[in-house]
Write a structure and sequence with these properties.
157 residues; 4 strands; 38% helix; elongated
Length: 157
């Protein structure tokens, strides 16, 4: 397990601002935080090197790309063995419909967040890419009606 990194209030402020808008310039970031731009650049560089900042991502509206239906698939793999899990994980991650994949404890082994065009596309995905696999014992599908983003990720208070 990775060790946590000690962050001061300036680091936390930088992380909060970048998580709200990763395109913020160093000049604007520095002004908001109250440090020199070079100091801000040094701090962001240190946060990257320490593995706190993992990268920057572009968020896309799935509906604008013709994938207006989102679902969560609970998947049970049997037998739950490493030699079956690795190819399953690779395959699910390679599917263009897959947005996130979680390995779980409990009765279900995986939770897969998918985006598809419609219910027929979801049915095709479940039947052709999941239940047709010999290691998949069960799939439960839950449609997502609405999704909200939450606040920035910060260490426990």
């Amino acid at each position: 397990m990775a060790e946590s990194v000690v962050l001061d209030p300036v680091d936390l402020h930088i992380l909060r601002l970048l998580q709200n808008d990763a395109r913020t310039t160093y000049r604007d970031l520095a002004a908001e935080v109250g440090v020199a731009p070079s100091t801000c650049l040094d701090r962001v560089t240190r946060l990257r090197r320490a593995g706190v900042i993992l990268g920057y991502q572009l968020r896309v509206d799935p509906a604008k790309l013709g994938r207006g239906l989102q679902a969560l698939l609970s998947v049970q793999v049997r037998p739950h063995r490493r030699d079956l899990i690795a190819p399953f994980v690779e395959r699910v991650r390679a599917l263009p419909e897959s947005r996130s994949l979680f390995h779980l404890t409990g009765p279900d082994d995986y939770l897969v967040h998918v985006t598809v065009a419609d219910t027929a596309d979801l049915q095709r995905l479940v039947l052709d890419e999941f239940t047709s696999r010999p290691e998949v014992a069960r799939v439960e599908t839950r449609l997502i009606f609405q999704q909200w983003d939450c606040g920035p990720l910060l260490p426990p208070a």
